[in-house]
Structure formats: structure tokens, C-alpha cells
Specification:
- The chain is α/β, with parallel strands linked by helices.
- The chain has two domains: 129 residues, no CATH class; 254 residues, TIM Barrel (Alpha-Beta Barrel).
- It has twelve helices and 13 strands.
- Strand 3, helix 3 and strand 4 form a beta-alpha-beta unit.
- It is globular and about 55 Å long.
- It starts with a helix and ends with a helix.
- The structure holds zinc ion (ZN).
- This is NodB homology domain-containing protein.
- One of its GO terms (biological process) is carbohydrate metabolic process.
- Its cofactor is Co(2+).
- Keywords: Carbohydrate metabolism, Cobalt, Hydrolase, Metal-binding, Signal.
């Protein structure tokens, strides 16, 4: 009997906290309760407490249980609908690019998913989800090997801070990418699954990253890789309207899974399956993983060269002139090589793909970003196949969603927890009498 009373008390406490601020909303988006299969952060990382301006709402894995800490407050695991503390809701400093004209540039197609490198014998090495604590080392390695790569950067994910926040060191790192001849594409502001968002939310994911990149570089990309490779018909249409090529890939190394033997087999078997005289490839890896940077990238470079291939940038695979890879943040025209960036005097190098900058060392003195490594690897940033991650931002365009105004939702999970507790207590009570 005493045991029952203790359990009843605990259930009461939990249910009270769960319902004090919230009203269970049976119409809450079902996606809130879905679980990204590879988000494996610690479920007990947060603390049950009342939701408010200082708490962040449920994580993707734990809808209905609100908490604080990285798993509840960092994109893409946190739910932006549940309160302002989810960092996906942050808006970067810089000029709002919403009204920048977006004429279609060049002959590379818009509105379709691009996967193939059009130049035989070329392999475009692409790295997603950064910059992160390993990206500087990757740039060193690429430089040592004379290789140019393409980076699809995320504005604010994994608790790394906003990429244009000088305190993070990432502005200098992104500037270095550009100066050293690498191509920079967008991978959205907070690694949201674009297919699950409204049009306005999709625009927000794109525009916020533009604002951050413009703040760093003075221009923004025309190539975007949708997180999780997820971009439905509406998404393709929106990205076309926003002037982006949907830049996917045809070799997924699955490096985020951590089985690098498997990743090596994937990479090498693809390259050896055809003759380099007949086709090229676009590969996917992630610079947020230590082993990808420090071991696997060298393997990819050595392997592709041994198989008779050489590297290319994504835009080169498309035979797209470098000026078309970026858009002038004021006119929307192809970036003409001059920058109004104010964070560095060593900007606006040609992005011909073969330009080695002599200004790169300045980065090392200003790169002070030492964010904690995020456990869970790709899981912390979402799985490529994990289309259930829900993240996003309140719109900077129409401001139709108020982060603070959505703090009263509770998912069905909470109701289930409370309901199960009541049933358990009643059952327990029945047995005790
Ligand atoms: Zn990604």
C-alpha cells in the first residue's frame, strides 16, 4: 500500500508539472511525437520543469517532456514550436535578404534534385553539417593534398552557435573556406527537414542562413543541399523560387554511422564500378566527425586518385561558371568577385577552384571556437534518412508564428504518460483493497 502511495505521489508530481503550463492539444502536429530514428541523445539530459522563457520544450525524441540542456534546446532536436529557447528560433545578425531578387543564373537546372557530376573522371567531395570543431583540420588536410571541396554549411545546429557570431570562430573559418578555393553551399539554418515545414518556415530556414553567410562573406550561395535529402514537390518549388539548385549526391558514404570500413567499401566500389572515362561522382561525408576528417578523407582522396579520378567542386561538375555559385546579396546577380564583407580584409578571392589564397593563416589566430563535441555524431544533427526530425524557426519574413505564443502546447505523449499513470494508480489501488 505504501508503495502505491509513493507511486501515486510521483505520478501526481509529474502530471502536475506537465500540465501546469500546458493544455494538452490533441490537434498538435503528429510530427511532434515522431522520433528521428538516429537521434540518440540522453533522454534524461533535461530536467522536468515548467515550461517558460527559460526552458525549451520537448526534444524530438521526447515529445511531451519539457526540459533544459542541449537535447531540448539545440537544433535540430528541439522543437521550435515550443518556445523561444530552442536555438532554431534565433535570428542571425545581418541584413535581411528576403527581398533580394533571385533571377535564375546559368544553365544548371532549378526545381529538380541534382545527383550526378556531369564531368567524367571527376569526384566532387562534399562535406555537410559543419563548420564544426574538426573543420579547421579538414581545411589543413585538403590544402596539404591540393584538393578543393564543397561545404554545405548549417547556420546553427548541434549547439555550436550561430556561424556568423565572431565568438564562435566560425566566421573566420568560413572565410578561410572561400579564400582557399572551396565552394560553399547552404544546408539550411538549423538542419530542418524541409519537407515537413510550411512554405514560410522553409523560406525562413533558407533566408536565415543567407543572412548569416552574407554577414560573413557579403554574398550567399545558389546551391543548397536539403537536410536528410528531403525535399518534396513543394520544397523543390520553393527552392526554385528562392534561386537555389538542389544539390544532392550519388555516393552516400554513411560516414555518420561510424562504420568506416563500410564507408570505404561504399566509396571505392562506386568508383571502381565504372571507368573514370565514362562518368563522375558526387560524394557525401560530414565534417562534424573526427574520423571522417582525420582518416576517411585521406582515404577518399587516395582512392579516387588511384582509380584514375581527380577532384572537382560541385559547380564545376555542373559546368556552371563560378560567378553563378553565389548571389550578390544586394542585386541578386552573380557574385562578381568583390565583397563588402566587413569581418576580414582578405576576402573575395576568385572561386575558380584552383586559387590558393595566401591569407589563410589569419584564421588560426581568430578561430577560437571550441564548442563541446556533440555526442551522437550525425544523430545529434539528424540522420540522413531520419525524415521525422522536426525543427525550424519562426519566420523572419512574416512573423506569423510567435515562439512565445506556442508555448502552451503539449503533445499527446504527455497525456499518455499522465493517463497511464492514472490507470496504473487505479489498478494498484484496486489490488490493495
Ligand atoms: Zn546534414
Amino acid at each position: 500500500m505504501y508503495f502505491c502511495l509513493i507511486v501515486a505521489f510521483l505520478v501526481h508530481v509529474i502530471s502536475s508539472y506537465a500540465l501546469v503550463d500546458g493544455i494538452w492539444n490533441p490537434n498538435a502536429p503528429s510530427s511532434l511525437g515522431r522520433r528521428s530514428p538516429d537521434v540518440n541523445g540522453p533522454l534524461d539530459d533535461g530536467v522536468l520543469e515548467k515550461r517558460g522563457a527559460t526552458t525549451c520544450g520537448p526534444s524530438a525524441n521526447n515529445a511531451g517532456v519539457c526540459g533544459t540542456g542541449p537535447y531540448y534546446c539545440d537544433a535540430p532536436s528541439c522543437h521550435f514550436q515550443y518556445g523561444p529557447a530552442c536555438d532554431a528560433n534565433q535570428t542571425p545578425a545581418g541584413v535581411n535578404t528576403t527581398s533580394v531578387p533571385r533571377p535564375k543564373l546559368g544553365s544548371t537546372p532549378y526545381g529538380v534534385s541534382i545527383r550526378d557530376c556531369g564531368i567524367p573522371g571527376k569526384v566532387a567531395l562534399t562535406f555537410d553539417d559543419g563548420p564544426y570543431i574538426y573543420t579547421s583540420a579538414l581545411l589543413d588536410l585538403l590544402k596539404e593534398n591540393g584538393v578543393k571541396a564543397t561545404f554545405f554549411v548549417v547556420g546553427n545546429n548541434g549547439g555550436k552557435g550561430q556561424i556568423n557570431d565572431p565568438k564562435t570562430g566560425y566566421p573566420a573559418l568560413i572565410q578561410r573556406m572561400y579564400n582557399e578555393g572551396h565552394q560553399i553551399g547552404s544546408h539550411t539554418w538549423s538542419h530542418a527537414d524541409l519537407s515537413t515545414l510550411s512554405r514560410q518556415q522553409r523560406y525562413d530556414q533558407v533566408v536565415k542562413n543567407e543572412m548569416a553567410l552574407t554577414d560573413i562573406l557579403g554574398f550567399f550561395p545558389t546551391y543548397l543541399r536539403p537536410p536528410y535529402e528531403s525535399c518534396n514537390t513543394d520544397c523543390l518549388s520553393d527552392l526554385k523560387d528562392l534561386g537555389y539548385h538542389v544539390a544532392n549526391y550519388d555516393i552516400d558514404t554513411l560516414d555518420w554511422q561510424g562504420d568506416y570500413g563500410h564507408s570505404q567499401n561504399i566509396f571505392s566500389s562506386n568508383l571502381k564500378s565504372v571507368s573514370p572515362s565514362t562518368r563522375g561522382f558526387i560524394s557525401l561525408a560530414h565534417d562534424i566527425h573526427d574520423e571522417t576528417v582525420h582518416t576517411f578523407t585521406t582515404y577518399m582522396i587516395d582512392t579516387l586518385r588511384a582509380a584514375g579520378y581527380s577532384t572537382a567542386l560541385y559547380g564545376e561538375c555542373m559546368s556552371d561558371p563560378p560567378a553563378n555559385w553565389y548571389r550578390n546579396s544586394t542585386t541578386g546577380q552573380p557574385f562578381n568577385g568583390s565583397s563588402h564583407n566587413s569581418t576580414s580584409s582578405s576576402t573575395a578571392k576568385s572561386v575558380s577552384g584552383s586559387t590558393n589564397s595566401t591569407t589563410t593563416d589569419t584564421v588560426h589566430t581568430s578561430t577560437t571556437a571550441t564548442p563541446s563535441a556533440v555526442s551522437g555524431g550525425e544523430g545529434a544533427f539528424g540522420s540522413r534518412t531520419g525524415n521525422t526530425t522536426v525543427s525550424g524557426t519562426n519566420s523572419t519574413i512574416a512573423k506569423s508564428q510567435s515562439a512565445t505564443g506556442t508555448g502552451t502546447k503539449l503533445s499527446g505523449t504527455t497525456a499518455k504518460v499522465v493517463g497511464a499513470g492514472v490507470v496504473w494508480v487505479l489498478t494498484c489501488w484496486a489490488f490493495s483493497i
